[in-house]
Design brief:
- By secondary structure, the chain is α/β, with parallel strands linked by helices.
- The chain contains eleven helices and 16 strands.
- Helix 4 runs parallel beside helix 6, helix 7 runs parallel beside helix 9 and helix 9 crosses helix 11.
- It is globular.
- It starts with a strand and ends in a 10-residue tail after the last helix.
- The model has no long low-confidence stretch (mean pLDDT about 90).
Length: about 350
Amino acid sequence: MRLLVTGGSGFIGGAVVDAALAVGHTVRVIDSLRSDVHGDTPAPVAGVEFVHGDVRDAPLIAEALEGVDVVSHQAAKVGLGVDFADAPDYVSSNDLGTATLLAAMAAAGTARLVLASSMVVYGEGAYVRAESADGAAETRRPAPRAVADLDAGRFEPLDADGHPLAPALIDESFALDPRNVYAATKLAQEHLAAAWARSTGGTAVALRYHNVYGPGMPQNTPYAGVASLFRSAVERGDAPRVFEDGGQRRDFVHVADVASANLAALDWTAGATPGAFRAFNVGSGDVHTVGDLAAAISRHAGGPAPIVTGEYRLGDVRHITASSQRLRDETGWVPTVTFDEGMREFATAPLRAAVQ
């Protein structure tokens, strides 16, 4: 199979490239090597045909698609950004880039797509209130947390009646509620992919990654994930600074498992009904808190203990954890890296150089 990986020089894209090469696929990469991701020294690309360019460049992406059977679309501007001034770049990079790619795929007759999406399309995670009239748990969606509550250190969401809620696993049927610019662009990418599949008879998968970590993460950038920020702090000799009370629940999934999920999704597109679009959560299935993450990184790296600050970022969600049962059931995918194994490796693994 000839595979085009957009963003194949990046953290997750590079892992997908390595996994695809390992099972014998022929891989072509297109990557813009943008400086806010790769810094001044672009990441090397070995063992693949490499195209230096942007997916928004329609003639170039048309050339990159020649002879390609399936596309793994990893190229995106990620993270929450610095402020709303980042919005035009997010929309252009993620949504215009995806639209340009899909139009080129339609013209080329390339009919299979795996799209990197994100858990952020859900907004807050799933919650239950057990005190229903019939005694059965009811799934609830809390409103965004009030500033007054956050200022007072009341971090747990409440339902509309002020009752406490217990976090639950979220599945793909849950309502989508993107709450920041990045999340809105990821959901738009999914809608574009679904429209492309219906229009062309192609098959598309959106993989909703949960908190991905592993060797080769970019370090010390406002666009990096919390695992990278904690790891960078420990490497500097600083204590990781944990926001809120550290009790935010997440699903931390190793990049190697994300790469294998991509290969499973590529296979799914080959057997799917023409016009099909399917979303899959990609998580480890093992829930931990942000405080657990900071403590594990510090412990395995021999660094200072985390500091719980009580600070918060407006718009952050409290709990979001994944059910990846659909992906397991429909593709046979199983994550293999446990939290402790992954943290032991990640605590001292090399990261990508800091981006200035």
